[in-house]
């Protein structure tokens, strides 16, 4: 059934991504949480043995690995090109923190998706039902009626089983990101 036949407006459809974005654990891109900053600083300190405030390329690579990142040779080369403009072959603490911010903000995408999904899927059924959707909207203080709810599900329900599965949810969130929420 076409969404328009239910009278849902594009704005109403956009409600779904917005709700998803609201329950998504927030994180501003390129910003480290205090824990992450502490972790990154500690790693840097360990490798900056001489305490010069900068580390060389190999230390930089080890440092990132110590934090659980496994950048490819190409990624490393491109990072070094970007940050080591003067060609010193060293990465400063500030540059290192910035690199970490990017890596951390890329890393938990799937984790955040799962966390947000779980907030909708209260029963852990693996899918989001109309009831789940309505509950979340109620919780965020923007209750929706059955018609709006059905329209939202219809918009993202790729296999048309009336439920939002994790793949559908990913699409909802991409929409949320694209609309700037
Ligand atoms: Ca589905």
UniProtKB/TrEMBL annotation:
Can you give the residue ranges of the EF-hand domain? 35-70, 71-106, 108-143, 144-179
Q: Which GO terms describe its molecular function?
A: calcium ion binding
Q: InterPro entries, alphabetically?
A: CALM/Myosin/TropC-like, EF-hand-dom_pair, EF_Hand_1_Ca_BS, EF_hand_dom
Q: Keywords of this protein's UniProt record, alphabetized?
A: Calcium, Repeat
Query: Which SUPFAM superfamilies does this entry report, sorted A to Z?
Result: EF-hand
What domain of life? Eukaryota
Q: Which GO terms describe its cellular component?
A: myosin II complex
Question: In its keyword annotation, does this UniProt entry include NADP?
Answer: no
Q: Which protein are we looking at? A: EF-hand domain-containing protein
What organism does the record attribute this protein to?
Answer: Diacronema lutheri
């Amino acid at each position: 059934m076409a969404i328009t036949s239910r009278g849902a407006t594009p704005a109403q459809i956009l409600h779904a991504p917005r709700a998803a974005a609201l329950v998504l654990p927030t994180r501003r891109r390129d910003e480290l949480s205090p824990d992450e900053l502490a972790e990154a600083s500690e790693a840097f300190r360990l490798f900056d043995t001489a305490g010069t405030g900068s580390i060389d390329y190999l230390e930089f690579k080890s440092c990132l690995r110590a934090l659980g990142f496994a950048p490819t040779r190409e990624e490393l080369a491109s990072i070094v090109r970007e940050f080591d403009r003067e060609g010193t072959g060293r990465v400063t603490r500030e540059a290192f923190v910035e690199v970490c911010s990017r890596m951390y903000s890329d890393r938990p995408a799937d984790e955040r998706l799962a966390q947000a999904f779980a907030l909708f899927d209260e029963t852990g059924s693996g899918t989001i039902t109309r009831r789940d959707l309505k509950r979340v909207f109620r919780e965020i203080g923007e209750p929706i009626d059955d018609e709006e709810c059905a329209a939202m599900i219809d918009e993202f329900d790729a296999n048309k089983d009336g439920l939002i599965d994790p793949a559908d949810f990913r699409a909802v969130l991409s929409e949320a990101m694209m609309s700037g929420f």
